[in-house]
Amino acid sequence: MAHSDRSTAAFGSRLLGPVDESSGMRRLRVQLLLTIPLVSANLAGMAVTFALIGFVLPGPTIFTRELLLLDVVATPLYSALALLVGMWWGTVSGLRALRWATDPDQVPTEDEQIAATKVPWRLVLRQAALWLGGAAVLTPLYGLVEPALIPKILLGIGFSAIVVCANSYLFAEFALRAVTARVLSAAPTRRRRGMGVFVRSLIAWMLGAGVPVTLSMIVAVWALVDSSVSTARLAVCVVSLGGATLLFGLLLMMQTVSATIAPIRGVRRALRQVEDGDFRVTITVYDGTELGELQSGFNHMVEGLREREQIRDLFGRHVGRDVAEAALASNPALGGVETEAAALFVDIVGSTTMAATVPAPEMVAILNRFFDIVVDEVEEHGGLLNKFEGDAALAVFGTPAKLPDASGAALACARAIRRRLDDTANDFIAAIGVAAGRVVAGNVGARQRYEFTVIGDAVNEAARLCELAKQDDLLLASGNTIAAADPAEVAHWQLGESVTLRGRLTPTQLARPRSSGPRGGDIRPGEQSERPRSDGLST
What we know:
Blueprint: H1 23-56, H2 68-92, H3 110-145, H4 150-175, H5 177-186, H6 197-225, H7 231-275, H8 290-319, H9 321-329, E1 335-348, H10 351-357, H11 360-380, E2 384-389, E3 392-397, H12 406-424, E4 430-445, E5 450-455, H13 457-469, E6 475-478, H14 479-484, H15 487-490, E7 493-500, E8 508-513, E9 527-528
């Protein structure tokens, strides 16, 4: 790929690093992004559980002498043990399924792809198992001392477990985006295995609003059933759970929205690059939902645009930019139109001898240098290089793109080519002829295969002038071309004798650039040119 998104936000966040990060740094980054948020989420969950059971939920208090041993020893001991087990079981052991990702060149097998997509769910299940273990261990211990604490402990642990597990999934999905991108690139046609945007949003609603509101409803029912629950205790519960709803709801919504808009932002940035004409851009597909399909679809679209632009560019190189633009802008058909235009014909002198004596690779190099100068100057002066004919070329000015001074442009182009050839070409000589007049320009050929061409007396005259220039001054133009040009360009030319060119009935007045004299023999006015025609020219 000529260009790819290697910015530090390639995966939707600068925390995830660049695409071309080393495998060792990538592994360390993923390990930290999994361990630190998961441990922080569990510590926050433990704090919320302690606050709910100790201060918010109605029922007996846990701060009694009989429960001191459980409060000081059993609960902290299990919490610390669960954290240590969770760090090893949840992250270190869980990442064993991603060993293949340490090799940047390894393509994961189908089993490895499936295992990689299941890592977030496995982390959630392991987190849930540890929280359920805490409920299974601590609830009976507290219940043996005070049975009325059982619903209180179950509600507190259950609320925190749900919130922590859901956050753990979102954290794991975020941290493993780089791995997900590798999986999706290895199997672009595989159906996405991650939860969809709808399910992700539903979970955010459930945890941010559904669970706290449900717990508030349970507390309200509890207060109706148990007359010992005071109004003050009920108010504390409602205020605390309402605050938790606002806080956790905001955090979860921020996580969900961030995970949703990150791929969209990436596509939007890439679209701006495409709008600016950069078809080399690609975006990293790292989302396992419908948004990942959007990312992949964008890449396929740009690939198609890139191929189309390559075809367009090749088309323009083969037939000329103006012809290509005209063909793409309308429905081309066979036929032509009559118009005023100027023709420039340029041909290498003695090419037949050169082809017989110069090695083929060297001859090709000479032709390429020659045509490079010709094409550069023709395009610089607004013309169209219509045909390459062996060692010769035909350029037209004024069609298909109109020019205010086609004759002047052709004459200026001829002088520029002559000047550059004189300065740089010491191993070959080229002659140039320029003529202007009425021509027929259009598509000629068969319905299945045709090309844009220009035919008419001006084209033939330019070819004959080029033929004559080989034995004259290497650059000749017709008097009609000089008469049709702008005075500023006319000042660079000097009219001379008239000759009857081969194949024509009327004399043509010759014009040469000023400060140059005849070369290769003089031709007097009225004398007919009978010099051999150049290679590749038709009568």
